[in-house]
Amino acid sequence: MGRRILVTGIDTFWGGRMAQALEQDPEVELVLGLGRTPPRVRLERAEVVRTDQAYTLLSRIVRATQVDTVVHTFLVVDSTKASGRALHEINVIGTLNLLAACSQPEAAVRQVVVKSSTLVYGASPRDPAWFDEDHPRVAQAATRLERSLLEVEGLVRDFAEDNPDIVVSVLRFANVLGPNITTPLSTGLARRLAPVISGFDPLLQFVEEHDVVRALAHATTERLPGTYNVAGAGKVPWREVLASCGALPLRLPPLGTQLAAAPLVRLGVLEFPPELDALLRYGRGVDTRRFEAAGFRYAATTAGAVERFARALRLRRSVGQEPPGYTYEQDVEEFFRRSPAVIRRPEGPPRRTARSQQI
Asked: Residue 35 and residue 52: Cα distance in Å, rounded?
């Protein structure tokens, strides 16, 4: 049998794209996705199961399907997407239920991959220029989001210690830029009015959106144990990013920053979650040599990710809005997959796997 892989958050940006990548690997027999809503991308052979955000049914699903790998993409890393209560339920309770399901005696799970964030390092004036994976954060966690991610990683570490026969991979991703992903930073850049805290011009590190999926696939196919930073090489000044994207600075005062931003957030002019406050003052950089030593090769540096994003913005501005996105409809998908009325072309040469592409 080939690998049987479960992807959490298949209805999210990363979960859907990870499922698409796994579908292309002929060594993967089953791609099973869990989500609260229908997927946002077209899937060819992945099975989709609707569940709640705390994954209370996960134990039954893991036992019944005998999946050998779980890729956990369903962690909130943008606090504008969830209330404080939902944030804790999704990140902490959901991960707790997931790990409990993977460690039950009847489970066949032999690998768990967790998509985390460099938010776990925080941002402060006393930070090192580059955080490696073993460097503790310097400042206390100041936001609910950071605290929840730190709690999640604590749960995952305990799980790895208690289950040495299971390969546990934690990938900490830097801020993402790309033509399709929407984040508070990319939203400001796209609107041509991005937040800047007066008196600060931090050095930031980015990872290009396609490298995120490639990194998750690499850790999954290569069965890499341990924790890895994932970010494009180098750092760039935030104001340089604005200039590249044709955005103007929306200046916020260094004192009472959140208070000053609040009315702009309510009016929809600005997205400024609490986790951006320290980042746009002090920046953050992470050392990625461990993941590169594990065989991963980035398609874009930090500067390259910014340039690709800026190029996509210029194209979008010149040609107008993008066409409507894909809408998942169960009946339609079942027709195309299973109906004898659909004429299926003979398969061509086998596609290269992620390993043969030297991701």
From this structure: 7
Are the beta carbons of 172 and 116 closer than 8 angstroms?
A: yes
| Residue carrying the six token digits 């104001």 | 239
Quick one: tokens of 24? 């292309």
353: exposed, middle or buried (Cβ count in 10 Å: 0-12, 13-18, 19+):
middle
Token match 């690499």: residue? 218
Collect all residues with Cβ–Cβ distance below 8 Å to 335 and sequence separation of at least 6.
341, 342
Q: Left, alpha or beta for 192 (phi > 0: left; psi -120 to 50: alpha)? A: left
pTM, two decimal places:
0.89
Give the distance from CA 160 to its chain's centroid.
21
CB distance 309 to 179 below 8 Å: yes
Tens digit of pLDDT per residue, the chain (359 long)? 799 999 999 999 999 999 999 999 999 999 999 999 999 899 999 999 998 888 888 999 999 999 999 999 999 999 998 888 899 999 999 999 999 999 999 999 999 999 999 999 999 999 999 999 999 999 999 899 999 999 999 999 999 999 999 999 999 999 999 999 999 999 999 999 999 999 999 999 999 999 999 999 999 999 999 999 999 999 999 999 999 999 999 999 999 999 999 999 999 999 999 999 999 999 999 999 999 999 999 999 999 999 999 999 999 888 876 545 556 665 566 656 665 655 655 544 444 444 333 33
Helices and strands per DSSP (H, E), number in the chain: 13, 13
Write out the two tokens for 45. Answer: 């052979």
Structure tokens of 119?
């938010």
Contact 223, 192 (CB under 8 A): no
